[in-house]
Amino acid sequence: MINAQRKNKKKILALAIGSVISATSYSEASSLVNVKPSQMVQGGNGLIQTPTARMRDEGGMAINYTDNGEYRFWSVNIQLFEWMEATARYTDVRTRLYSQSESFSGDQTLKDKGLDVKFRLWEESYYLPDISVGFRDFGGTGFFESEYINASKSVGPFDFHLGLGWGYLGTHDDFTSPFCEIKDSFCERPSGFSGRGGKVDYDQFFKGPMAVFGGIEYQTPWEPLTLKLEYEGNNYVNDRAGELQQDSRWNIGAVYRYKDIDLSLNYQRGNTIGFGLTYRFNMHTASQAKFDEEPRDLMRRRAPSSVEEVNKSRLYNDLYRDGGFVLHDANLEEDKAIFYGTQTKYRNQDEAIERIGRVAASELPDSAETYHIVDNRGGRPLVDTQIDAEAFIAAARYESVESDIKQTYHRTSPSKEVIDAYDPENTNGFFYSTDFFWVQTFGNPEEFYLYQTGLLLNGGYAFNSKFSVMGSARVTVLDNFDKFNFLVDAEEVVLPRVRTRVREYVNNDVWIDTGFAHYKDNISENVFGQAYAGYLETMFAGIGGEILYRPVDSNLAYGIDLNYVKQRDPSNQLRLEDYDAITGHVSVYYKPEFLEGTQLSVSAGQFLAKDKGVNIDFAKRFDSGIIVGAFAAFTDVSAEDYGEGSFTKGFYISIPTDLFLLKPSKGRGFIPWIPIGRDGGQMLTRPTRLIDMTEVRSPFYD
Predict the structure, then answer these.
(1) Which pLDDT belongs to residue 12?
(2) Is residue 394 left, alpha or beta, with left meaning phi > 0 and alpha meaning psi from -120 to 50?
(3) 150-166: buried (b, 16+ CB within 10 Å) or exposed (e) per residue?
(4) Which residues of the chain have pLDDT under 70?
(5) Element housing 92 (H / E)
(6) What is the pLDDT of residue 7?
(7) What is the model's pLDDT at position 193?
(8) Residue 165 and residue 208 in contact, taking contact as beta carbons nearer than 8 Å
(9) Burial 69-93 (b: 16+ CB within 10 A, else e)
(10) Strand partners for 605
């Protein structure tokens, strides 16, 4: 009987594969994609409930909300590379409560986090389709855990999709998985999830029932409107919202596009109406129009005859006004000029150097053969951009059709001669600044969205260019953190509570985050060092140091830090508690050439809870300057001992402020998302990091 069923399912599988082949070799009238991909209900490029093989342009981002009967979904979909998309999702289950304890979570409905990834295996050509493999809700509690392989082929205004799904997408069990024929363990799919949630359950991939899914998209003659027809592989008997009635496997829908907004409406399962809203933009092409002066014109250049005739006051003021360069010191000689300062205005290094070079060229005599633009950070010269004056002026005046200003200068470490000549007038004195902070957290049991905002007051005193004392205080202006029903959870833990007590600290309206002494210096041309002692972060005080090796414009940097810390008392800002730890890491920072615009940071050592392991951070930078990244820490702490989430992980996005301003700016906003924060794999938030202080030597964030 079982063999007969398998034979029938094999026939169905053969028909499904045949359908894919016929769709992919349709006719010579086949064309490239004419239907623009849109978001499915749960986020990600797809039809209604099922994914497609389609990818959008690299850098594409979609923020999505859908209302779907028993479920509501909030999702963010990012096209990290042209061959990879990732989706982060929150699911609200209307038919379930967050917990059975009213005093704990009230009447808040159940929330769940999910992550999806999809990889393109083959890009569509004239005859062959897009082919992708995807992993849906692959970590955590696996509400919708699935794996799938699908194909998409465009034919005129139609886009055809056909896929094979396992897990949630395969519960209709249309045919026996071919993997089951190879090994019996693939015939059944393990239930539940490993650890305490948050782990990737590799042992479940491509196991259990298998079903076919797919559909058609039609780009109507009216450009804003796309119609969808879908055939599902899920039977809805194992949903977290309860067993849902499915009167039909066919779903229909429509998407209306208005500028960067998608409005969707659909009819699912033969009994459910859903709708959604999507906002789309591209992180490569995102920009903001600027009101700024044009770079100085050198066509009518009238240079002074000697350095004595240089109008220094005008030159120094113009370096800031036209080039965004705050001057700290300058040495003008007949054959060269050295300008020491900090670029505060332009994120683009080439734009900044061209503007500064044009100012220098218009104000300095022809005898000056070289302009040195020495970029300082923390009072220390870090990069010397040497401009060949004659070649620069010729390129700026377009004296050749092949003129390229970028070829007229190069970046290098400041020489001993350049460093010794640096003699700023003011290396000591008070400094201060005020910043705005915004802290937010999603998916909390007491309230889905909690926030805190206020002012961050920074200040200190510099004794010289190497030694200073500084600190910061956080003043809360507005928050809803008073909704916390507990400050420390009642869970029995194995690890010291180095982070799960964070609510005790953030509940203080005024808190001294840092207050420490700091010493920094250049150990050699490419080696930098620092030492610090005091209140190092919100929760810990101590003493530590760091050494970093970082050549100019190198794709590799290496560092080591070592710290002794004690936990601060949340009820008394100046007092310390008994818990202490030695924590530190050996770190490697790498920008791989084969993945343009990416940075990989790996730090191995001992964490705050004295667990040992490695933290891996991967970041992707887009042309607009927006950076998205993810990190995870893997230590010798088991998933059971770690607690909910199984291991530390998180995501972040860093957005340049000048995307919102009409004037050039170098500021950034940082938005983190940590699904579950426990005590394992937690790093000390050091008040200064050499990799940040030396960013100008090999820019990624700048």
Answers:
(1) 42
(2) alpha
(3) bbbbbbeebbbbbbbbb
(4) 1-33, 103, 140, 192-198, 490
(5) strand 84-97
(6) 47
(7) 55
(8) no
(9) ebbbbbbbbbbbbeebbbbbbbbbb
(10) 585, 613
CA 476, 480, 485, 491 torsion-angle sign:
negative
CA distances from 226 to 124, 155, 158, 262, 409 (A): 21, 15, 10, 10, 51
Q: Which two tokens stand for residue 35?
A: 């239907």
Quick check: 37 and 120 in contact, CB under 8 A? no
The reported pLDDT for the residue numbered 643 is 80
Note the pLDDT of residue 197: 61
What the block records as the tokens of 398 is 């377009």
Structure tokens belonging to residue 266: 């659909």
pLDDT at 591: 97
Start-to-end CA span in the chain (Å): 67
Q: Tell me, what's the pLDDT at 585?
A: 98
Tell me what percent of the chain is helix, strand and coil, each rounded to the nearest 5: 15, 45, 40
Residue 462's alpha-carbon distances to 431, 466, 528, 534, in angstroms, are: 8, 8, 19, 16
What tokens appear for 325 in the block?
Answer: 């360069």
Q: Cβ distance 146 to 168 under 8 Å?
A: yes
- Is residue 212 helix, strand or coil? strand
CA distance 333 to 433: 36
- Residue 427's φ and ψ, nearest 5 degrees, are -115, 0
pLDDT score for 196: 59
- Rounded Cα–Cα distance for residues 500 and 246 (Å): 43
